């Protein structure tokens, strides 16, 4: 069952895949030491599968999945289930309303880093009414808990909230990353009263980069700036998850859960069989396993023929 209806780009991906005989799919010879670059119009989907109790379904094979585009079954051309390195940007609210919450945010970030792959690239974008890079200019990415902590504590806790501008800057940073898998984790009350960018602009950019957004809404019920709807939308339309902990210190557990979610994802890819030009196309991914009721979370659609997406994938 598909949990979210969202957008993913059709992009020209230069993928380093094992050399294959012509009648084999890209997933059938992962152990081959020889690699070639294959130029395909490949729709790439990060897919999380859980059972009805919320546990990860980590033992599925390619034959357990089906992909449908606009109701038409597609041939799976890419299947991966492995802990690949990822670029992760933490987008941290430093507006005045976060004064009492920053210690829990720092602890959550450190917990996330501890569960990360040593080859992950991480960075911090802080924001109030201004957007501020957390890491020094000479350190574009890191996987050091100490550097991430210092990056978060670098910015003052004052002023208004420019969430969309901060997300835009973080997406710019993802564009520079060398890892193909890209994730943002936004920790905020969800309100925005100072941005020049808009939510549709941010969602379009995330679509073009195939970036997954997780959001954590940290606010008290009486907080006037809270906006759960924005945080839900950012996550839902990128294949991520939105969290709203009852206690601020629950952010630590949530960041640990996000780290595990990233590590347990499948990567599926297909070349669309559609002959129509451009437009929005819907995607449905089905996962089946005997005796299990599985829930699939992924992107549920994409806008075909995005020139910017093609340029981005060619980098």
Structural class: alpha/beta
CATH fourth-tier homologous superfamily of the largest domain = von Willebrand factor, type A domain
Tell me the distance between the termini: 34 Å
Number of helices: 7
Number of domains: 2
Residue-averaged pLDDT, rounded?
83
Q: Indicate the low-confidence ranges by residue numbers.
A: 1-39, 306-315
The helix content is 10-25%
Biggest pleated sheet: 6 strands, mixed
Radius of gyration: 19 Å
**What is the ordering of alpha helices and beta strands?**
EEEEEEHEEHHEHEHEHEEEEH
Query: What's the overall geometry?
Result: globular
The CATH architecture assignment of the largest domain turns out to be: 3-Layer(aba) Sandwich
Major sheet: order of its strands? 8-7-6-9-10-11
Kindly identify the CATH topology of the largest domain: Rossmann fold
Annotation, overall tally of beta strands: 15
Q: Please report which band the strand proportion falls in: under 5%, 5-15%, 15-25%, 25-35%, 35-45% or over 45%.
A: 25-35%
């Amino acid at each position: 069952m598909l949990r979210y209806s969202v957008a993913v780009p059709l992009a020209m991906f230069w993928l380093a895949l094992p050399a294959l005989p012509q009648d084999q799919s890209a997933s059938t010879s992962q152990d081959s030491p020889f690699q070639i670059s294959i130029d395909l119009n490949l729709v790439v989907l990060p897919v999380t599968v859980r059972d009805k109790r919320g546990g990860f379904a980590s033992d599925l094979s390619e034959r357990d999945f089906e992909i449908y585009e606009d109701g038409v079954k597609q041939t799976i051309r890419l299947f991966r289930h492995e802990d690949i390195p990822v670029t992760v940007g933490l987008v941290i609210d430093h507006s005045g309303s976060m004064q009492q919450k920053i210690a829990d945010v720092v602890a959550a970030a450190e917990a996330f880093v501890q569960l990360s792959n040593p080859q992950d690239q991480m960075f911090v974008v802080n924001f109030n009414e201004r957007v501020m890079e957390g890491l020094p200019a000479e350190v574009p990415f890191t996987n050091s808990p100490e550097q991430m902590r210092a990056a978060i504590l670098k910015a003052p806790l004052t002023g208004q909230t420019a969430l969309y501008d901060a997300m835009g800057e973080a997406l710019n940073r993802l564009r520079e990353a060398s890892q193909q898998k890209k994730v943002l984790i936004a920790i905020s009350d969800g309100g925005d009263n100072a941005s020049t960018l808009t939510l549709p602009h941010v969602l379009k950019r995330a679509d073009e980069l195939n970036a997954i957004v997780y959001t954590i809404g940290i606010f008290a019920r009486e907080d006037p700036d809270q906006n759960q709807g924005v945080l839900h939308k950012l996550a839902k339309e990128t294949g991520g998850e939105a969290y709203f902990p009852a206690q601020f210190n629950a952010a630590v557990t949530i960041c640990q859960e996000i780290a595990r979610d990233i590590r347990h994802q499948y990567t599926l890819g297909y070349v669309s069989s559609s002959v129509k030009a451009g437009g929005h196309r819907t995607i449905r991914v089905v996962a089946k396993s005997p005796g299990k009721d599985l829930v699939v979370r992924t992107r549920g659609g994409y806008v075909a023929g995005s020139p910017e997406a093609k340029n981005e994938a060619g980098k």
